[in-house]
Design a protein that fits this description.
Blueprint: H1 23-50, H2 52-59, E1 60-63, E2 67-73, E3 76-77, E4 86-89, E5 95-101, E6 105-115, E7 121-132, H3 135-140, H4 145-162, H5 166-171, H6 173-188, E8 193-204, H7 207-249, H8 251-268, H9 283-287
Antiparallel strand pairs: 1-4, 2-3, 2-5, 6-7, 7-8
Helix pairs in contact: 1-2, 4-6, 7-8
This protein binds 2-acetamido-2-deoxy-beta-D-glucopyranose (3 copies).
Length: about 290
């Protein structure tokens, strides 16, 4: 038995009803707008001229060396790009403008818990330096370039670090910072934001892993120490064997060594008398 469900498409709303229709009307509206805009402009300029000494207070604006002003006249971008530094003019009532600071801004990326490629959880934080490279674009293309850059920096950090294993995370910070910087810069380019620098501040490992790594390092050091000691013994025994061979070659050498030992004992413990008893005397008894 089968159940068939017939999906009927939802009834389509007639959108055209609510849309201002077509090109001829649009062109008309555009023309009308242009006329109104010109009218408003003329009136505003007249007003400025009439109230001249005082109107300067409202028409002349100043931005600092490090700032730019993006001007909108009746909602449209004014041609010629952002104004500044120094003074610029606006027409009150029909112009609005916003100031953009071009200086480098720094922010902290809060610590991010990241799972590295070899499944270790690490907490990483970073510092990002950026500045506005194009004030016009920063105003028109993004609502809040600072916030957007912050959020994007956090996610880019996670994405880039997620592709690295632990040893790379710890040893290649320089190149990782570089990688984050370039991919962040590409992403923020449409916002007029130039990411100058990214520094990975800290890579924090979980406590247990820290302990394990410390134990591993200690063990490997101990192993090395043992190998070195063993090598020393090997060399020493070889040297001893050579010495023994030399002594065995000539019996007189043994006698000399014997006397030397006696003299050193005599120097150290001068109250003790050592009487050497040559073993050769007992040879006759020992062989029997
Ligand atoms: C800023 O961007 C706009 C639009 O892309 C462009 O026309 C303008 O030349 C740019 N300004 C600078 C200073 O690069
Ligand atoms: C980490 O990755 C690199 C290259 O991707 C590789 O050469 C290295 O052996 C890896 N290390 C570990 C501990 O997996
Ligand atoms: C014996 O040795 C002691 C020190 O160990 C020293 O003071 C003393 O003079 C020595 N005696 C002789 C006879 O060399």
């Amino acid at each position: 038995m089968s159940v068939e469900i017939a999906l009927t498409p939802p009834p389509q709303k007639s959108e055209r009803k609510f849309v201002f229709s077509d090109h001829e009307d649009g062109a008309n509206v555009g023309e009308n707008n242009a006329i109104i805009a010109t009218l408003l402009r003329v009136i505003s300029i007249l007003l400025i001229v009439i109230t001249l000494p005082f109107s300067l207070l409202f028409t002349v604006k100043v931005v600092q060396e490090y700032e730019r002003a993006v001007i909108f006249r009746l909602g449209r971008l004014v041609k010629g790009g952002a104004r500044g530094p120094g003074i610029f003019f606006i027409i009150p009532c029909i112009d609005s403008y916003c100031k953009i600071d071009l200086r480098t801004v720094t922010f902290d990326v809060p610590p991010q818990e990241i799972l590295s490629k070899d499944s270790v959880t690490v907490a990483v934080d970073a510092v990002v330096y950026y500045r506005i490279s194009n004030a016009t674009v920063a105003v028109t293309n993004v609502a809040d370039y600072g916030m957007s850059t912050r959020l994007l920096a956090a996610t880019t950090l996670r994405n880039v670090l997620g592709t690295k294993n632990l040893s790379e995370l710890l040893s290649e910070r320089e190149s990782i910072s570089h990688m984050i910087q370039s991919s962040l810069d590409v992403a923020t380019d449409p916002w007029g934001v130039k990411v100058e620098r990214v520094e990975v501040k800290d890579v924090r490992l979980p406590q247990q892993l820290q302990r394990a790594m410390a134990a591993e390092a200690e063990a490997s050091r101990e192993a090395r120490a043992k190998v070195i000691a063993a090598e020393g013994e090997q060399k020493a025994s070889r040297a001893l064997k050579e010495a023994a061979d030399v002594i065995a070659d000539s019996p007189a050498a043994l006698q000399l060594r014997y006397l030397q030992t006696l003299s050193s004992i005599a120097a150290e413990k001068n109250s003790t008398i050592v009487f050497p008893l040559p073993m050769e005397l007992f040879k006759g008894y020992l062989t029997k």
